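ERR on first pass: missing label on line 2. Operator R.T. fixed the label and resubmitted. Corrected input:
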Amino acid sequence: MRRSTAAAVGTLTGAALIVGVRLSVTPPAATVAAPPAVDLANSGASPEPTGSKAPAKKKPAEQTAGKTGGAAGSGSGLRDGVYKGKAADYAYGTIQVSIKVDGGKITAADATYPVNGNSGTINPNAIAKLKQETLKVKTAKEIDAVSGATLTSASYKQSLQAALDAAGA
Amino acid sequence: MGTVVSIELADDLPADVLSGLIGDTCAWLHEVDQRFSTYREDSEVNRFQRGEIVLDDLSPDMRHVLDACADLWRFTDGYFDAYATGSLDPSGYVKGWSVEVASARLARAGSTRHYLNAGGDIRMRGLNSDAQPWRIGIRHPWEADKLSWVLTVTDGAVATSGTYERGEHVWNPRTGKPARGLRSVTVVGADLSVADAYATAALAMGEAGIGWLAKLAADGYESAVVTDDGRAFSSTGLPAAV
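pass 2 clean. output:
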């Protein structure tokens, strides 16, 4: 039971990334805890379709990399679409933020997280999975004990464990 | 507890010593039953439940069990719940814990090669009487005389929670109904008390338990699962026999 692992990872990730808003559009009220900073000057002005990526579910998901300096110079705000920030390289891999603008407001923010190699250490949930396999049917030979759902006393008598216990006597 | 306990001592010790160890183990398990059985009117757990003892006056073992149940409730997001039935019933933790303690006592008393199987929850140490790691079969969730996995373990615990014996006895606290989705969950790790609780909690979660179990591997707890519709899953580190 190591909760501290996830909390420490969250803090590390948050500390390494920059928080801030430098856009002239009005971000939505409360959906995103810390709206991302996006260097629009370098990202290319036109919106591009977002590739799908692992959704950022952990607590610091909204805090993403980007330059604090850049800002949309024009006062009229951004055109609708998806904007990607400059990809930033960190020790564990590359992080890139994107925002979606709809009706002149930021309606979504996301970040790509590295999910392979040793970057699994900052997103361990990405690699922990049980693998599916065929349900085998094995005969019970040369085993010492059986683990199963708790037997009622009646079903114990016919159980494999009972047979083992009797054989050992 | 109404649970059958199987014990095997594989140590090379004199017969009277081994009998003594078995006797001590049984005495411990009876003490646990006296204290924790919800079926005994005068058990400590029932007296506490009725308000006849206060927290400060509880035995150290009872306080440990209540603390552990509280920790597990938090760790499993409420899926392990000693109050699931509406009144206090810590038996989901007590079963594994009592065997974990029994095994530790045996080790201190000189038995380093043994297993105890309390109704399908097993704690083992050392090697079997053939000087090999203990071979533990996981019962097939449909065919009672077959196995779906065979594990090899020296020191450790194997706990299984399933619906194929007692039916729908595990509750999903979120729906207030019997848990659905998983037919059998086996957890393998160092400590039987938590392995047992984790297996029960995962069963209560239904299919979401599969993802939850995967995260336990980081803490050294491996798992093997069978769903109601016959799909099987296991963690990469499950100590399956070759």
